[in-house]
Amino acid sequence: MSTIKEIQDEIIEEFAVFDDWYSKFQYIIDLGQELQPLEECYKTDNNKIEGCQSTVWLHAEYVDGKVLFRADGDAIITKGIIALLIKVYSGHTPDEILDNEPYFVETIGLRDNLTPTRSNGLLAMIKQMKIYALAFKAASK
User: Model-level pTM greater than 0.85?
Assistant: First the structure.
């Protein structure tokens, strides 16, 4: 399995082929459409990410020392953004998640091209993933 850094570098390379933000957003939307639907039983208030303008549910499980994330959302852009974050962090240990900031967000210019409310939602998604990692790390000691 690739490291979080390798995955982020791959994402940066993928986004480098696009000339404009319309194409980049279309790619993000496509990623969201490829995201496996989250079962209704996980679409609860406990799994809802606070701070997102649209509704995003993030479910995490701890399996064999690794955090597995699954998510869904009701807006196409935010669903694509959470799909990117899942691509980066899912399947890694809590320490790996906590020790790796999502630098690809700045490098590809994502945060600069989001509305302020979507940018806040992005930060809330990252924060929630880190909180899950911290909780699983604490529980495994």
Answer: yes
